[in-house]
Amino acid sequence: MDLSSFTTLHWVLLLLVGIVCLIIGYFWGRSGDKSAGIASELEREKEKAGRLEKDLETCRGRLSEAESEVEASHEIPFDANAAKAAFGKRIKENDLKIVEGIGPKIEGLFHNYDIRTWKALSDTPVSKCQAVLDSGGDRFKVHDPSSWPMQARMAYEGKWADLVRWQDEHNHGKL
């Protein structure tokens, strides 16, 4: 092939093909470098996530400690005189039997589950109250514990008039 037979058009086409190949090669080469950089960046981000998870667990532990301290410091004092005025009889602190529907035997079942205070009963889910009743056998199936945590909350907070009013308005403590 004789180079003198190439026209200007051929030289331009050859030059364009060379430029296109150069551009493709440049971008192809850069993409190989990115994968190594991305892998190292991914490792750095994984290490950072691990440190953040450790920090989060530390913060959760501190929060739990702070909540327990706040809860212990915010105990509501029992006012026996206010309770007596509302109920018309002497009330002992943390007597679960003032909750409508709880008698001495059911109170004993709750004590077996280490639920001995109005606060503990108020924080107990209704499903747990039902499980405590179920542990006593078939004779406790007629009882409905759905209002017991709420009544215990009123007793714990010293809302004696509200508790008496609620018990008067509801049939045997049922919601």
Walk me through what this model shows:
This protein is mainly α and 175 residues long. The chain is built from seven helices and no strands. It has helices spanning 8-73, 80-87, 104-112, 118-122, 126-135, 148-156, 160-169. The termini are far apart. The model has no long low-confidence stretch (mean pLDDT 86).
Strand content is under 5%
Would you report the number of β strands? 0
Separation, N- and C-terminal Cα atoms: 103 Å
Oligomer: single chain
Q: Biggest β-sheet: count, sense, barrel?
A: none
User: How many H/I helical runs?
Assistant: 7
Mean pLDDT: 86
Structural class of the helices, strands and pairings? Answer: mainly alpha
Topology as a string of helices (H) and strands (E): HHHHHHH
Instruction: Return residue spans where pLDDT drops below 50 for at least 5 consecutive residues.
Output: none
| Rg over CA atoms | 38 Å
Shape: rod-shaped
**Helix fraction?**
55-70%
Number of domains: 2
Compact overview of the structure:
The termini are far apart. It is built from seven helices and no strands.
SSE blueprint:
Layout: H1 8-73, H2 80-87, H3 104-112, H4 118-122, H5 126-135, H6 148-156, H7 160-169
List keywords for this structure.
175 residues, mainly alpha, 2 domains, rod-shaped
